Amino acid sequence: MNKISLVGATRAILESKNMSDYRISRREESGKPDERQLRKLMEREGYQVYQWSDRPGAVYAEHSHATDQSHWIISGALELTVRDVGIFTLEPGDRDFMPAGTSHSARVVGDVAVVYLIGEK
């Protein structure tokens, strides 16, 4: 079951099966995202934020986190496989919202490093 709603200037996609709270917000503007602006927004939402980077071909085996997380892509592309939900590729400006305990794996897609903000709360 897919539900689509509008959130500000982005289109939010909620994929609901067993992890009904996992969602993705796709950026509709062009150009490189403003990292400082995105960081400030995440901090206002209560996240502790840090920047992360992974090289091309990097892979993370399936795992989960004890905290809610949000990944906001600055450059490059990251593919997330969320157990019982689906496979999603996040590109610059795209963001996900991942509840604590969500089982997922990740891999860098393409020939360039991915740079993203990770928010935890």
Radius of gyration, in Å, reads: 13 Å
Cα separation of the termini: 27 Å
Characterize the biggest β-sheet: 7 strands, antiparallel
CATH class: Mainly Beta
What order do the SSEs take from the amino end to the carboxyl end, as H and E? EEEHEEEEEEEE
Low-confidence stretches: 1-19
**Strands across the major sheet, in which order?**
1-2-3-9-6-11-4
- In helices, the fraction of residues equals under 10%
- Summarize model confidence as the mean pLDDT: 87
Total strands: the figure is 11
Class from secondary-structure proportions: mainly beta
Beta-strand proportion: over 45%
Quaternary structure classification:
single chain
How many helices?
1
CATH superfamily: Jelly Rolls
- Quote the CATH topology: Jelly Rolls
* CATH architecture grouping: Sandwich
Which geometry do the CA atoms define? globular
List the domain count as a whole number.
1
